[in-house]
Design a protein that fits this description.
Layout lengths: L7 E5 L4 H17 L2 E7 L14 H25 L4 E6 L8 H12 L3 E6 L4 H7 L2 H8 L4 E5 L5
Parallel strand pairs: 1-2, 1-4, 2-3, 4-5
Length: 155
């Protein structure tokens, strides 16, 4: 294979320590290859599907948007400090309602990424069944290579 191994690396960020580790790994890979990194935050709109009387989903949506903006601003500062060419994207209208993994894959593919980096908590057993795993769903659905970065707080 001639040229760079990866030209465009998408990394899912959410402001957690685990996603920070994924971002550091994306920076490491990009620094070695000169690739461009896309820091990607997908708003989890699944909770907004429920109609529960006096519930106002706009407040939750605004909180998710604010959280996403902060996570992307933090990622941008780190990427800039490391001298990595980057873009950021806040996906507030996910491709797949209630499916963060599907929306991460869709946004990365749309951008033309040839590698997707995502952090995983490494939960097992009942905790994984109850909490689910965005990383696992990303792997199942992805059409590109996925690099999993295990969080330090893994069980």
């Amino acid at each position: 294979m001639a040229g760079k191994a990866y030209n465009k690396i998408a990394v899912a960020v959410d402001g957690s320590g685990t996603s920070d580790l994924a971002l550091y790994e994306a920076i490491r890979v990009a620094s070695g290859s000169g690739a461009t990194v896309l820091a990607l935050y997908v708003v989890d709109n699944g909770v907004m599907l429920f109609d529960a009387g006096f519930y106002d989903p706009t407040q939750i949506e605004r909180a998710y948007l604010d959280s996403g903006k902060k996570a992307l601003e933090s990622a941008a500062r780190l990427l800039e400090n490391e001298g990595v060419t980057f873009e950021t994207r806040l996906v507030s209208d996910p491709a797949v309602i209630g499916d963060v993994a599907g929306s991460i894959n869709a946004a990365a593919s749309e951008w033309g990424a040839d590698l997707l980096v995502i952090g995983t908590h490494g939960r097992r057993g009942v905790r994984r069944l109850v909490l689910g795993s965005v990383a696992e769903a990303v792997i199942r659905q992805s059409t590109m290579p996925v690099l999993l970065v295990r969080g330090k707080d893994a069980d």
